[in-house]
Amino acid sequence: MSPLPKAVSQVDVWQLARKGETLQGVFALSGCARLLEGMLAQPVDRVVEWSLAGQTGSLGQQWLTLQAHAQVTLQCQRCLSQFDLQLRVDTRVQLVSNEEELEADGADEDPDTPDRLLGSTHFDVHALVEDELILALPYVPKHEVCPSLPKALVEAHGTDTRRASPFAVLADLKKD
């Protein structure tokens, strides 16, 4: 594995795949403006750790495997409190050399078709990592189990919030 120098974010992915090399690196989460857009303020010391491995398949296809990890602070949509979410990305894409290959073979129609990516000798790794982290964000961020309830639910503590089972209603009708 060879680390990518901090100042360099562009690599030749064709060479990376051909040689079967792996690059790894770390960059500041604050450098991901698109990812952080509309989010809560993030601690300044947070980083994104990533690795990018290239390989060539038996039929000559070239592949990239990206793994990335970052921790972001989001607002829970249930209880409205802040929480930290671990974003983990582990994805594999096939490299293609032109737009025609990118859209060939009905790639959008078959869910089993691997994702394709337009390769380049000046490929922006930072942008790829940020794109994949954006895709890993939940549509509705929330705790697994909220640590606190909203004030309105706490005040309604004495009320019974359970719905009657529709089968219990049918059982009552059967008794009549």
TrEMBL record:
Instruction: Spell out the InterPro entries in the cross-references.
Output: YceD, YceD_bac
- Entry similarity comment: Belongs to the DUF177 domain family.
This protein is called what?
Answer: Large ribosomal RNA subunit accumulation protein YceD
Identify the species of origin: Yanghanlia caeni
Function summary:
Plays a role in synthesis, processing and/or stability of 23S rRNA.
Write down the superkingdom of origin: Bacteria
Q: Which UniProt keywords apply?
A: Ribosome biogenesis
